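INFO worker-7 received task bundle
INFO bundle size: 2
INFO processing item 0
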Amino acid sequence: MSFTSHIEKVREGLLQGQFISEAAVSQGIILPTLKELGWPVFDTSVVIPEFTVQNRRVDYALCHPAYKPSIFIEVKKPGTSDGADRQLFEYAFHEGVPMAILTNGQEWSFYLPGEQGRYDERRVYKLDLVDRSIDESNKRLQRYLGYKNVCSNEALKEARKDYQDIARVREIESNLPKAWAAMLKEQDSLLLDLLAERVEDFCGYKPDLDVCSQFLEKQLTSPQSSNSVTTPSIQKSDSKIKLKNQSHVEQSTQSLKSIDKYSLTYKGKVYSAKSAREVMTTLFQVLAEEDKNFLERFASRKHGKKRRYLAKNKFDLYPGRPDLAENNSFEVSPGWWLGTNYSRRNIQDIIDMALEVADLEDKNSIHANVT
């Protein structure tokens, strides 16, 4: 198998949520990847599992020469890795290991612990096997982790060159406008929350996230001067735009037609809903009943930038926001909580991810209508 084919296979497994534990990531991604990169994975003097450092253990020590670690690899469960860099740096500092890698199988962070700066500033590169192209993934893994490159010290030289290259600063500056445009287009739920709360600060009314979503869409399509901001028109209470503070008006003007437009159809059965959020929660309940491993696989996927769409602890859905966890979470199955504080656009993305993870044989057997 070529290395490109190997990366494609790993990406497919990640998208299907196959790797639900650290052990699964180690056996299904890390060791096969090292083997494809030329490492003698069955020689425990070169690839040492559970390497002991001060009565603690790092998952893998890659050695050259034998028994002398050149790289530490710490493996984390899919969907987790935050905070693990400090522990990994401590291991590397103690042993004088020049390169350290933190990975959950999908995201690979390459660090040079001996360089200056904060932990994140000593990260040479962050590779996402799903988001990055096959060619980029191939190039980076070979560059920093190829067995021949490590043995010749070329991998470390290249990593240091990348770390010191001032061109990275220019690249960041040139991509700032693109990043801002992407934030407006992708409409991350955190951005919508911040916008809604700031509107409430100004006028005392907190808009629904769909209002904020429509506003951001207008920012992408409406011409703006450097000193002006496009303001969306907010119609009366009988429109599709709603204010949370006017829920009593919304309820009195809601028509049967608006209720009927939200629905879930699965295997010929129609589940009526009053909102996009209800369609989403019903979908998760149906899929969880059909497949006992669905929720575990979905939880193993990469979710929002800072949030988890699904978690066993509802307070993990909105880090640092217990108020949102209390009022905007739904228990789809005993011990599993789904976040609901999302716009219709975000909800559609979550539904699409759920259907992708479910990987139903008959794609036409299910249809979720949230528009």
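INFO item 0 finished
INFO processing item 1
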Amino acid sequence: MSLELAMRLTELFLAIAFIQQSLEHVFAAEKKLFWIRIFLSVLLLCNFSTTWICVLLFINGIMILNHFQGPYNGGADKITMLTLACLTLAHLAPSLLLQEYAFGYLAMQLIASYFVAGVAKALNPDWWKGKALQDLFAFSIFPAAEKFRDFSTQLLLLRFASVGIIVFELMFPLILISKTFLICGLVLAFVFHLLNVYFFGFNRFVWAWLAAYPSLFWFCEFVHKVVVRA
């Protein structure tokens, strides 16, 4: 995948992610900030002056972070702002090399996001025992999880799922080995996010992480080309 195509796909998915997030706030006190975000996201979808739209979206994002005194929605907000920051820097970069650095940084951070999460879980005995997932199903405050409370009694199943999640996240950097590994890894990651939507209602995470996936397709090919040249 070319850098240009990867950046364009990132723009499209990121715009959808921003629109989805913004629709939750269009009638709230901070609605002006999010109506502006929706308007800019539509322009980004339409491929209108993308460099400066990215700059304006970044400024808008900083204003939203200031309003909520940080990324109030946790990981989804962090990954969307990271993706936007790297995309903006890639657009503003005066050379192809700096563009590659900016976009490559996004890919490396995305890989790290899964791997670090796996390390954190692996260091927690409750995850290996399935207790962490058990507590999540038993005490989750998210409305979507209420109909799955009975899952908290299926400790053997939850232990199996917990180990599977840990192994998957720890092995995620292996996606750089080949395109087959990359596709399999991203399919598993996407299914993982969809399951989080189904069980817990974490709907923001799907588009937020999907927006960064094109960087991995480009980065994987880029790394292989560098290795071949070496």
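INFO item 1 finished
INFO post-check item 1: The two ends are 20 Å apart (CA to CA).
INFO post-check item 1: The chain has a mean pLDDT of 88.
INFO worker-7 idle
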